[in-house]
């Protein structure tokens, strides 16, 4: 028997894609299975979506950085195989997920007022704690999303970040049924945002710089599309023409700074602009337009456990269906490259 065989026979090691240095290729390493602590469960992964945030994490793009070595991934779906000490409302064999909001303190001002995504002591899946790019992961059973019965693991995985994030982001636009929303960036987040917006009764304009993304958006219910890469196109005027004066809300999921300033051009007076996308850096904001149009510009980070349950329920009722292509854990560096190059339609998920 080789070492690897005897080791895996003991079932105490696993493979995980690990960030060892910012900007370097992820390393598929063998590590020991983590031991679930208090309120924690060990979960055997079935699938994990790959979010553009995982690329930002591995590149150390943001001012608040994770600490290598770490395992990214926060759209993991799997079954509970071991429970740590403490009480749990999940049992062995249940299907659960991990999420960006891996846990929160439960007692601070934000947690007590239903705003747990603002908790300053929150842990983030695949960022401050190891995530779902491995064969096993830990979850906090008080915060881990419960996967609805009948869900397809690969298909439901993107709901755990992309889905909940845009669902909450769309709620934050305060766009009413029958009003216009622009979804800027039709990637992993944007392609589910189109579906949530349609299900929420909004009229959707999809904006991207890729024709394939815009075609996908149309097939998912966008009434109009804007190709921001078109030479000489004024996106503000294009949207004003479609909507008769500008969009009531704009949701920006794009991974490019230019899209953030454009949101202001596309907004109607009194509109709410919600930022989900997180490219590093900043953008110039015209003070006059913001004041004169009386705009609200709002950041929105994932969603609470309640938002998550609601977002999953849209999926369970067949109102939202992520478009997912499967890959293997070993493909992770290629998938990252495709995300950076803007070559991914919908979402890619690792199948274990
Ligand atoms: P993705 O790579 O799948 O999609 C990004 C899309 O943006 C692509 O379709 C790309 O063509 C498009 N794009 C690029 N430049 C553009 C431009 N100038 N105008 C319009 N569209 C443009 O990425 P994703 O997984 O959907 O993530 C999107 C962003 O959202 C990332 O920055 C990610 O970190 C962030 N994110 C934030 C939250 C949150 O809670 N706020 C949650 C998840 C992801
Ligand atoms: Zn994410
Ligand atoms: Zn808190």
UniProtKB/TrEMBL annotation:
InterPro entries: ADH-like_C, ADH-like_N, ER, GroES-like_sf, NAD(P)-bd_dom_sf. SMART domains: PKS_ER. Keywords: Metal-binding, NAD, Oxidoreductase, Zinc. Its cofactor is Zn(2+). CDD domains: CAD3. One of its GO terms (molecular function) is metal ion binding. Gene3D superfamilies: Medium-chain alcohol dehydrogenases, catalytic domain, NAD(P)-binding Rossmann-like Domain. It comes from the Bacteria. It catalyses: a primary alcohol + NAD(+) = an aldehyde + NADH + H(+); a secondary alcohol + NAD(+) = a ketone + NADH + H(+). It is an enzyme of class 1 (oxidoreductase). Belongs to the zinc-containing alcohol dehydrogenase family. This is Alcohol dehydrogenase. It comes from Corynebacterium poyangense.
